[in-house]
Amino acid sequence: MKVLVLTTTFPRYKNDTTPSFVFELSKEIKNKGFEVIVLAPHHKNSKFFEELDGVKVYRFPYFFPLNLQKLCYDGGIMRNIRKSFLAKLQVPLFFISYFYFTYRLIKKLKINIIHSHWIIPSGLIGSFFKKFLKVKHITTAHAIDVYTIEKLPFRKILAEFIYNNSDYIICVSNILREKILKILNKKGASEKEKIFVKPMGMKIPFVKDKKIKKEKFNILFLGRFVEKKGIKYLLYALQKVINVHKNVTLNLGGTGPLEIELKNLVKELNLENYVNFLGWVERERIPEILSESDLLVVPSIITEEGDTEGLPTVILEAMGAGVPVIASDVGGIRDVIENSVNGLIVPPGDVESLKKAIITIIENEKLREKFIKEGINLAQNYDWEKIGNFYVSLFKS
Questions:
Q1: CA 292, CA 159: separation in Å to the nearest integer?
Q2: What is d(CA 201, CA 286) in angstroms, rounded to the nearest whole number?
Q3: Mean of the per-residue pLDDT values for the chain?
Q4: What is the CA radius of gyration of the chain?
Q5: CA gap 247, 285 in Å, rounded
Q6: Distances in whole angstroms, Cα of residue 39 to Cα of each of 58, 105, 152, 161
Q7: I want to staple 171 with a disulfide (CB 3.0 to 4.6 A). Which of 47, 177, 206, 220 is the partner?
Q8: At residue 112, what are phi and psi to the nearest 5 degrees?
Q9: Is residue 117 within 8 Å of residue 7, measured between CB atoms?
Q10: Phi and psi of 207, rounded to 5°?
Q11: In angstroms, what CA-CA distances link 55 with 33, 36, 101, 114?
Q12: Spatial distance between the Cα atoms of 239 and 271, rounded to a whole number of angstroms
């Protein structure tokens, strides 16, 4: 069976900093006997076609010259629309091109199933071909797509079209499913049987035990340097933490459009001796980075556009590696973190609460050990292979 994956976020080239969870899931599905074809937006530094680990990747252009394509990548579509007038102008051209190349691949490759990541724009396009070409269609909602639909004046019509023309909808968190049901004004059991909750997965060696090192307490942030990650609030909190505990280091793993701004903030707060910028951490290095860390902090927020986390897989990766976690109360965080049971949850953007939570983890050894044990037990349910099996079961049904 041939699966066409529609996505607006996909690695543009080897070792790209663009999130790779769509690629990881595509590989799992391919490994289970499906032929997987990905259609994603082109970027000036990417190829129009290539094969990555057995996954065929097509990239469609939507503006010429190619180096002026501004809508996708580098912070996401909604951010780019807000920041760039040229990106706004490219929206209709983007939809036309996305629609055309989807149709072309469906016909040329005789696609059996469409798997759309993000309800809009991919889910909308996939739903159209479900309705008129009778291709099976599964939609995965990640976060910003649902928050965007909530703001639209015709949201119910749009949501109903996608709902009616998707065989299944998978949400990466419970809060997204509840939001979709609210938009649809549906609360019955039949809707919940069609709308599943399943986060993206991870692939990382699990540890049986993990001890906090005594000589230095290493705090880790791992992710893109974008607004929704709330990194600046972690820096403000660190400034307060070092007034109590000097023997602390914050390692920031990642890169992104806010990198220069964050480096300037580190200097402004006099944190140069406490903060290390690791650069982008390749997938292969994540186990090593986690093994050297004593705490993961995920200080995410909700941006003005409504962009926020679905469920960051780095939380599950850290738990599997035996690293305690502090995270903001956004998106699907509560789906995996039970406050004071297997981690700590703080209000988004609340520097004082974040400071107190970090100090609590540093000072309370028994609590750390409890979080480590509970986290390892939970994380084993979210291995990529198990997530892949879930999607394959839907495809086969």
A1: 44
A2: 14
A3: 92
A4: 21
A5: 25
A6: 5, 9, 26, 22
A7: 177
A8: -95, -35
A9: yes
A10: -105, 150
A11: 12, 6, 17, 15
A12: 7
pLDDT digits (tens, 9 = 90+) for 327-358: 999 988 999 999 999 999 999 999 999 999 99
Tokens describing residue 353? 């609460």
The Cα–Cα gap between 67 and 84 comes to 14
Cα–Cα–Cα angle for 149, 194, 181, rounded to 5 degrees? 35
Tokens 């093994």 sit on residue: 291
Is the bond preceding residue 121 a cis peptide, omega within 30 degrees?
A: yes
What is the spatial distance between Cα 49 and Cα 42, in angstroms, rounded to a whole number?
10
Q: What is the chain's percent helix, strand, coil content, to nearest 5?
A: 45, 20, 35
Q: Report the C-alpha gap between 275 and 204 in whole angstroms.
A: 26
Confidence of residue 191 (pLDDT cuts 50, 70, 90): low
Q: For the whole model, what pTM was predicted?
A: 0.84
Distance CA 245, CA 280 (A): 28
Q: CA angle, 149 as apex, 221 and 78 as ends, to 5°? A: 50
205-229 in b/e form (b: 16+ CB < 10 A) is eebeebebeeeebbbbbbbbbbbbb
> For residue 311, what pLDDT is reported?
79
Spatial CA neighbour of 139 closest among 166, 112, 161, 158: 166
In this prediction, residues 107-114 reach a mean pLDDT of 97
Cα 84 to Cα 81: distance, rounded to the nearest angstrom:
6
The two tokens of residue 127 are 């739903």
In Å, how far are 73, 125, 198, 349 from 304, measured between CA atoms? 19, 26, 26, 13
Residue pLDDT, tens place only, 136-172: 999 999 988 998 898 888 999 999 999 999 999 999 9
Q: Facing residues of 248 across strands?
A: 217
State the residue for tokens 């993000």.
118
Exposed/middle/buried for residue 9 (C-beta within 10 Å: 0-12, 13-18, 19+): buried
Q: How far apart (Å, rounded) are the C-alpha atoms in residues 388 and 170? A: 13
